[in-house]
């Protein structure tokens, strides 16, 4: 962590000659280095190791020296170049690179991305030379699309209505457990077995539970939302966080109902609208004259989540152009003005909360059917934070930004897993996936400091008379409170 | 009756620790109106700094007096934790001061995740136990089957909390730093116009908050004898609950809230169910924020139209 | 007082759209509004004036539901002025309102803010303009028609699935917005963000937005503040035309006496939360108490007024 003191650099140095400039830069870098020793010294310089059950200390002076050295050198370099007082600061106003990019290629981007998403399994099939070889890529695609959908769902709450929800994972969990519990429930299975045949529930559970999961999560959104929606922005955030944690803790501790920390396993798989993906003669492959391949199910799941995500996007676009969507955005802009125009802010907030929760529930149901297993482990606060980071990085309220952010973040995190070659560099103890959350946390801070309005900061108006002009992000507010 | 007294003692001990952390939340919220989400993790970092310092002193340097070691650990942990929190404010919060309101909060969430994982990466994910220290107890009551004991470390925790609180209370109420701080709470722009160095004052607030969190970290380490990278989040949320319950922005409120939360948690664990003790804490947080957001000792807010 | 003698002739007594009765508002120990009663005539432009801190905005916040009055009754009549019996009936049964075919009685002190604007049809503007700055001018006017459009969109269901009826309603709403854009001469800025407009245009837009919610009573909090003389004149014209063409009654807080005296039919003067004068602009202008409250406005006026007060006190003591 470098500590920024450049902005306090005395203006006197501006006129100074190169020598004093360097001296100043050097002194500043030295101070930074000293601070870095103070910050990193205890935790990097020493390591607590458990030897034979007792705690001992390890020493890492080399690592500490390298880190501090990097910070010192980096700071010195920055002081002499970017932060140099002689440099005329480039004042950039108006739309950012991404905004301009969005404006110029904007019309083409959405269809192109959509076409790519639709063709992705086949592209990876040809690129990798077979279904089994492309499994990793398609799984990654499913993961990214799940987070795209979650991001779009949360975007309704945070981006449009301006309500900071830190407990979004709760609705994801409600959706997942709704499916997991219903699909594995013996009474339900027996009920349908008597009514519609032995295999009915196993084959149709997902398609029946999917809408129920969304509905159920939406209802939970209303139940949790009702008491908290009159709270101010940051209090709202904390209470939603508390609710998310309460739901997770209940899932862990209510063992009789939820299976506790062990979770629920062997949840029925998704079917092709009632036709199971198996090698039997009633299976998908046999009916369509294909050679059986377990990848059929994975590819199908990919398209299911793609369609679910597109429904989310479509609904959001539609809702934005309806009075309710405009009221959400108006609420984000000025709640008091909304009330002076006869808008019932409680029901408006509640509708945003419930709509967002509903899409979270759909995504949760999908998660359960894809994994075939749910446990409270999957619904920690980190997931909420990750979805929030995607929305924030994408630019609150921007659909395309959120999609790109989800791809970048989830893709980036996955890539960390593949950096195995780094073990040769840092030794065998080095596990790059450990650094996922570390980098993620750092990225969240960095986004806020560097680009608090996200990649796409402009707002697209919902209606226009003569021409559609996007609204600069500087005018758009980010929620009350 | 004996169990009740014992739980009362345990609850007050735990509450003292929460109270110390809660002060950090309350002071930061008071001065810049932000929920410093990373504060719980700063507390956790302080426990690790204390742990490392303690190991250095006892195993490497070979100090035998546990009290001397603890005193040194306390000072060292306070110093380094303050430095950490100072740097966090500098890097993650100060550039966002003019930004939209939720930006610092999101940045703080990122910082919280960063700190927890930084410690995990550098110190490993396992629990780090320290050998039990100061194991002496005073037996207060003895009914034959059940002994009510007051451990010396509990006495140390409560006394240290009380003394440090008194000290910081004096600092905030009676000195010019405290006056500057309260002025910044009221109106930052006006305070700046009157020649108060606002940046400086805010930095100092973070430093004080971290120092108190470090005290809590040392006490926690001494009391429970274990440190873990994940131990920042839940105590942090509980301490925030304490700050809210006491009335956010109010120093005595934070302590009162801390003691209450500590008592509620221990009694809940003793009489109801230990599994749901965190649920109880989170529920109190939600209920307080919903029904009495001004807390016990806070001032109510009037909406400006 | 001079005005009370000829009370029967005034519209605000004969046909009040709003009666404020014994309104009290306390904040802790502070009494911001103290036993205030006045009436707003149907179709009148009524001005609420008074020195800074007199409690004018507090009265507005009570009328529009943002504050719950500590005590008092705020009776709004749709269609015609309610009879005392009707008012007593609503008050007794504890309802918020009683709406018949031709007339309705609303007790504003019992209604939350969004109902005051949505059901009782009292719209307002704010002293420190509150536009949706990140939305376009047209969007601002569309949000103002929320309740009507919400019903037309079948509470989003019709609109979501593109069922008929919604598109037509939306078109009608755009037409209405265009009408008001034309009225406040912002037609060519319709697609610009509201936050980009100059100050005077923002004030006008806020009035247009309030009018888009079809109010019967329009409450304007210092509409002329920050306007230049030309804009002030335009405002006068706009307010007159709103009254003339839409029959909307207007209640306004204003410091600019040229606006107040020029356009209002009825002036109520507040000082320290109590009413010190009430009547036609001419009557109020010559009321010595008003002038006393405004001491310091004009050097010449001060002496003049002081002399007047002395003579008033002399005659007042004898009566």
Automatic annotation (TrEMBL), chain A:
Keywords: Cell membrane, Membrane, Transmembrane, Transmembrane helix
Domain High-affinity branched-chain amino acid transport system permease LivHM N-terminal: 25-120
Compartments where found: Cell membrane
Primary site of residence: membrane
CDD domains given in the database record: TM_PBP1_LivM_like
Residue intervals passing through the bilayer: 29-51, 63-83, 108-128, 140-164, 170-192, 204-229, 235-255, 299-319, 350-373, 385-413, 433-450
Record's signal peptide: none
Matches recorded under InterPro entries: ABC_transp_permease (IPR001851), LivHM_N (IPR021807), LivM-like (IPR043428)
Domain of life (superkingdom): Bacteria
Topology in membrane: Multi-pass membrane protein
Name of this chain's protein: High-affinity branched-chain amino acid ABC transporter permease LivM
Organism: Ancylobacter koreensis
Lineage: Bacteria, Pseudomonadati, Pseudomonadota, Alphaproteobacteria, Hyphomicrobiales
TrEMBL record, chain B:
Primary localization: membrane
Cited CDD domains: TM_PBP1_LivH_like
Signal peptide limits: none
Subcellular location: Cell membrane
One Pfam family from the record: BPD_transp_2
Protein keywords: Amino-acid transport, Cell inner membrane, Cell membrane, Membrane, Transmembrane, Transmembrane helix, Transport
Chain segments annotated as transmembrane: 12-35, 42-61, 67-88, 100-119, 151-172, 193-223, 243-267, 279-297
Classification via InterPro entries: ABC_transp_permease, BCAA_transport_permease
Protein's membrane topology: Multi-pass membrane protein
Domain of life: Bacteria
Family: Belongs to the binding-protein-dependent transport system permease family. LivHM subfamily.
Name of the protein: Branched-chain amino acid ABC transporter permease LivH
From TrEMBL, chain C:
GO molecular function, one term: ATP binding
Presence of the UniProt keyword Nucleotide-binding in the record: yes
Keywords: Amino-acid transport, ATP-binding, Nucleotide-binding, Transport
Pfam families for the chain: ABC_tran, BCA_ABC_TP_C
Cross-referenced Gene3D superfamilies: P-loop containing nucleotide triphosphate hydrolases
Domain ABC transporter: 18-297
UniProt similarity note: Belongs to the ABC transporter superfamily.
Protein's recorded name: ABC transporter ATP-binding protein
Species, as recorded: Ancylobacter koreensis
């Amino acid at each position: 962590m470098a500590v920024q003191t450049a902005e306090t650099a005395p203006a006197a140095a501006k006129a100074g000659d190169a020598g004093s400039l360097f001296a100043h830069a050097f002194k500043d870098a030295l101070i930074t280095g000293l601070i870095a020793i103070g910050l990193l010294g205890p935790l990097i310089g020493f390591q607590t190791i458990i030897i034979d059950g007792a705690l001992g200390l390890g020493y890492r002076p080399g690592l500490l020296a390298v880190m501090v050295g990097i910070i010192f050198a980096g700071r010195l370099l920055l002081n002499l170049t970017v932060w140099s007082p002689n440099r005329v600061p480039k004042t950039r106003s108006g739309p950012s690179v991404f905004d301009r990019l969005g404006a110029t290629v904007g019309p083409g981007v959405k269809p192109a991305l959509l076409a790519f998403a639709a063709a992705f399994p086949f592209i990876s099939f040809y690129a990798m030379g077979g279904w089994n070889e492309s499994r990793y890529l398609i799984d990654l695609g499913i993961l990214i699309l799940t987070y795209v959908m979650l991001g779009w769902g949360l975007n309704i709450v945070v981006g449009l209505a301006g309500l900071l929800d830190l407990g979004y994972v709760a609705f994801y969990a409600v959706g997942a457990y709704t499916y997991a519990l219903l699909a594995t429930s013996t009474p339900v299975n027996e009920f349908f077995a008597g009514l519609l045949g032995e295999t009915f529930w196993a084959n149709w559970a997902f398609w029946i539970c999917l809408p129920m999961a969304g509905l159920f999560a939406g209802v939970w959104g209303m139940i949790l939302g009702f008491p908290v929606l009159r709270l101010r922005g940051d209090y709202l955030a904390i209470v939603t966080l508390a609710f998310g944690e309460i739901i997770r803790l209940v899932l862990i501790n209510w063992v009789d109902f939820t299976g506790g920390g062990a979770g629920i396993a062997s949840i029925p798989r998704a079917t092709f609208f009632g036709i199971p993906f198996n090698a039997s003669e009633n299976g998908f492959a046999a009916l369509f004259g294909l050679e059986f391949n377990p990848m059929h199910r994975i590819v199908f799941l990919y398209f299911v989540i793609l369609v679910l995500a597109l429904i989310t996007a479509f609904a959001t676009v539609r809702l934005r152009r309806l009075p309710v969507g405009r009221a959400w955005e108006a609420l984000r802009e000025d709640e008091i003005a909304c009330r002076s125009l006869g808008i019932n802010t409680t029901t408006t907030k509640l509708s945003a909360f419930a709509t967002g929760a509903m899409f979270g529930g759909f995504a949760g149901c999908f998660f359960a059917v894809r994994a075939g297993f749910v446990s409270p482990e999957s619904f920690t606060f980190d997931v909420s934070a990750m979805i929030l980071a995607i929305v924030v990085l994408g630019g609150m309220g921007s659909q395309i930004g959120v999609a790109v952010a989800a791809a970048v973040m989830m893709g980036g995190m996955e890539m960390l897993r593949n950096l195995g070659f780094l073990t040769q560099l840092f030794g065998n103890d080095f596990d790059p996936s450990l650094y996922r959350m570390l980098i993620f946390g750092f990225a969240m801070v960095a986004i806020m400091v560097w680009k608090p309005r996200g990649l796409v900061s402009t707002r697209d108006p919902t209606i226009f008379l003569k021409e559609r002009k996007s609204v600069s992000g500087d005018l758009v507010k980010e929620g009350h409170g | 009756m004996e169990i009740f007294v014992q739980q009362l003692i345990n609850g007050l001990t735990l509450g003292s620790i929460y109270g110390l952390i809660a002060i950090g939340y309350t002071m930061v919220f008071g001065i810049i109106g932000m929920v410093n989400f990373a504060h719980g993790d700063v507390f956790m970092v302080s426990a690790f700094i204390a742990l490392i310092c303690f190991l250095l002193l006892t195993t490497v340097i070979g100090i035998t007096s546990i009290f001397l070691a603890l005193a040194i650990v306390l000072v060292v942990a306070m110093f380094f934790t303050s430095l950490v929190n100072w740097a966090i404010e500098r890097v993650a919060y100060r550039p966002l001061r003019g930004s939209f309101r939720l930006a610092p909060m999101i940045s703080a969430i990122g910082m919280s995740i960063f700190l927890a994982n930084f410690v995990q990466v550098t110190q490993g994910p396992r629990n780090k136990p320290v050998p039990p220290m100061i194991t002496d107890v005073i037996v207060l009551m003895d009914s034959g089957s059940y002994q009510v004991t007051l451990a010396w470390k509990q006495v140390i925790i409560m006394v240290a909390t009380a003394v440090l609180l008194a000290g910081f209370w004096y600092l905030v109420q009676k000195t010019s730093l405290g006056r500057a701080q309260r002025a910044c709470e009221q109106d930052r722009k006006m305070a700046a116009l009157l020649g108060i160095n606002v940046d400086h004052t805010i930095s100092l607030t973070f430093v004080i908050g971290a120092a108190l969190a470090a005290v809590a970290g040392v006490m926690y380490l001494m009391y429970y004898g274990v440190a873990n990278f994940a131990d920042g989040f839940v105590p942090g949320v509980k301490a925030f609950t304490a700050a809210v319950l006491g009335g956010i922005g109010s120093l005595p409120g934070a302590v009162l809230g801390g003691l209450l939360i500590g008592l509620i948690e221990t009694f809940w664990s003793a009489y109801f169910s230990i599994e749901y003790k965190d649920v109880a804490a989170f529920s109190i947080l939600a209920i307080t924020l919903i029904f009495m957001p001004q807390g016990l000792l806070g001032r109510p807010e009037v909406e400006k139209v | 007082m001079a005005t009370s003698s000829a009370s029967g002739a005034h519209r605000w007594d004969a046909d009040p759209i709003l009666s404020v009765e014994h309104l009290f508002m306390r904040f802790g120990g502070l009494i911001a509004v103290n036993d205030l009663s006045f009436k707003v005539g149907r179709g009148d432009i009524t001005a609420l004036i008074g020195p800074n801190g007199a409690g004018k905005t507090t009265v507005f916040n009570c009328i529009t539901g943002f504050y719950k009055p500590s005590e008092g009754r705020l009776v709004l009549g749709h269609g015609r002025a309610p009879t005392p019996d009707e008012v007593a009936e609503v008050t007794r049964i504890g309802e918020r309102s009683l709406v018949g075919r031709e007339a309705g009685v609303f007790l504003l002190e019992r209604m939350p803010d969004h109902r005051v604007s949505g059901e009782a049809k009292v719209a307002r503007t704010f002293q420190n303009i509150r536009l949706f700055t990140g939305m376009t001018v047209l969007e601002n006017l569309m949000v103002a028609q929320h309740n009507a459009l919400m019903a037309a969109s079948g509470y989003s269901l019709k609109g979501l699935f593109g069922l008929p009826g919604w598109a037509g309603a939306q078109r009608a709403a755009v037409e209405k917005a265009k009408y008001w854009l034309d009225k406040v001469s912002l037609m060519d800025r319709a697609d610009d963000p509201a936050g980009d407009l100059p100050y005077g245009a923002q004030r006008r837009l806020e009035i247009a937005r309030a009018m888009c919610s079809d109010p019967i009573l329009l409450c304007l909090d210092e509409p002329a503040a920050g306007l230049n003389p030309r804009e002030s004149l335009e405002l006068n014209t706009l307010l007159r035309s709103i009254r003339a063409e839409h029959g909307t009654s207007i209640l306004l807080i204003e410091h600019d006496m040229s606006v107040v005296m020029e356009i209002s039919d009825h002036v109520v003067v507040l000082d320290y939360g109590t009413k010190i004068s009430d009547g036609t602009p001419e009557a109020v202008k010559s009321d010595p108490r008003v002038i006393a409250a405004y001491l310091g406005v004009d050097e010449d006026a001060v002496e003049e007024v002081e002399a007047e007060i002395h003579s008033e006190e002399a005659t007042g003591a004898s009566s």
